[in-house]
Each structure stands twice: as C-alpha cells, then as structure tokens.
Design a protein that fits this description.
Layout (H helix, E strand, L loop, with lengths): L2 H4 L3 H18 L13 H9 L8 H19 L5 H12 L5 H15 L17 E11 L2 E12 L14 H9 L30 H6 L2 H5 L4 H10 L4 H5 L7 H14 L5
Antiparallel strand pairs: 1-2
Helix pairs in contact: 3-4, 4-5, 5-6, 10-12
Length: 270
C-alpha cells in the first residue's frame, strides 16, 4: 500500500495498486473458491461407534476422542491407506484390546470414514471447449494408493497444473495417462496423449539428432517425414550443425527441447 503512494514511477504505482486490490479481494473471499468441508469430531466419533462400542470409562473416552481427532485429520487429507489408519489406532487401542482386534477396529474405522472423504463436485465453467475426458478413477503404485475415486476432467485448449509434494504420484499419474492405464480415460485411437521425458536411449545414443527422432517407434507410427522433423526441431532452437551432431552430446536443457520437439511431431491432444 505504501508503494502505491511513494514509488516515483507512475506505472509501477499502478501495478502496485492492482496488486493491493487483488489481495484485498482475496482477503474478503471475492472470486475465491469456497472452503472445502472439514471433518467434525462428533460425526467422526459417531462413525467410530458403529464399528466398536467403547466402555463407559473416562480413560477409554479420552483415548477414543484423541484417536477421533487424528481421524479427522486423515479424513480431511482424504487418507485411504490402511497403514495410516493403523498408525493412529493400533498404538493407543493396544492398551485396551489385543493387537489383532485393534487392527480390525482400524479397518472398520477406515471403511466408515472413507464415506466422509468424497470431495465436493466443482461447478463447471460455461465453455464451448471440447471435452477431452471426464472420468473417475483410482491409482496405486505397488501397494500404495495414490488417488482414490478421483475425478479427471480435461478440455481442449486449456492449460492444467499438477501440484503436489515429492513422491505423491504426479509422474506416476502422467505416465499412467500416456500409457492408457487410467480407468475411463479415452483410448489412444480416440485421444492421443504424450508424456514428455528428456530420455536418451543408450542403444540409439550414437545417432544424430534427426536420426534419433526418426528412429523413434512413436514417430514412425505417425508416419512423420524427415523434413518435418528438421523443421520442428529448428522451431525449438536446433541449428543445422546441431541437427547433424550426435544426440549424446546434448546437454540436459537441449535434451528436454528434443523431447518437446518429439512430442510436437506426434500431434498429441494432451
């Protein structure tokens, strides 16, 4: 706010003023998505009670309430891993029952509370853009559930961001989409998807840049001529000398540009 009055450059003051206005609107909740619903302790304890009835004892009640508060956090985080529920139940319930019973109770808690994890459907914006996909799916990596009953809706011409911490499954999801492993996702003959990776296959690393792309099975399946390969790679910055040079000499940045050029040649929908 001070910059809107004290900065000497009028254009900079205007930009600062717009930023202040946007922050004030966000602070007032104008134009912001509504806060998602959060789990309530009373509702969580009622769900617990349908699994196992606790004895009327102050100590037991305190333990159950404590586990209920941890369960609320798991519900809000849409945590559907059994190991996560075991970690908040078993260590505390083992003082009340044997370990096998505690694990059985934890399993029951997850089954009941998973019904409270369904995310609210977002309202679709009015648009005439072509719907590329609209499906619900679950995704796992080994025994770890990454996404459970998750909706994926994509429209042509839109840009989407995939945000999450390390090892939460972002790359796994993109590979699964590109490999046709997402339930309900349109097949490759209806919707072509490409996952861009800056990979250089060792057995082809001796080839020139153009020959490396031309030898790619995906490019051959698209029947892309060499002339188009050269034009596309030139459009992302490759010079004539680089096109004739060995692909193994490319730096990490140029390998990514090579991968982008290869994706462009496949004329992917996504």
């Amino acid at each position: 706010e001070r910059a809107t009055e004290e900065v000497s450059d009028p254009e900079a003051r205007t930009v600062c003023g717009k930023a202040v206005d946007q922050l004030n609107r966000a602070n007032d909740g104008i134009g912001m998505a509504p806060e998602p619903p959060v789990a309530e302790l009373e509702t969580t304890l009622k769900a617990y009670a349908t699994v196992a009835t606790a004895a009327e004892d102050d100590v037991v009640a305190t333990i159950v309430e404590f586990v209920g508060k941890q369960g609320m956090a798991l519900i809000d985080a849409r945590a559907s891993e059994q190991t996560e529920w075991n970690s908040i139940v078993v260590p505390y319930y083992k003082v009340l029952v044997d370990a096998a019973t505690a694990e059985a109770i934890a399993k029951g808690y997850l089954e009941k509370c998973s019904k409270m994890m369904v995310a609210e459907e977002e309202e679709e914006e009015d648009t005439d853009a072509e719907q590329l996909c609209d499906c619900k799916f679950s995704l796992a990596y080994g025994s770890k559930v990454l996404l459970n009953n998750t909706r994926l809706s994509l429209k042509r011409g839109f840009r989407y961001g995939l945000v999450g911490p390390n090892e939460c499954g972002k790359t796994t999801l993109m590979r699964a989409i590109a490999n046709g492993q997402v339930d309900g996702f349109p097949p490759a003959d209806e919707l072509r998807t490409v996952f861009v990776e800056a990979d250089i296959l060792g057995e082809l690393s001796h080839l020139s840049v153009v020959d490396y792309i031309f030898a790619d099975e995906r490019i051959r399946n698209c029947a892309v001529p060499r002339e188009d390969i050269e034009k596309t790679l030139a459009s992302v910055g490759f010079t004539d000398i680089m096109l004739k040079g060995s692909v193994s000499h490319l730096s990490g940045g140029w390998r990514m540009k090579l991968a982008l050029g290869r994706a462009m040649l496949q004329r992917a929908d996504i």
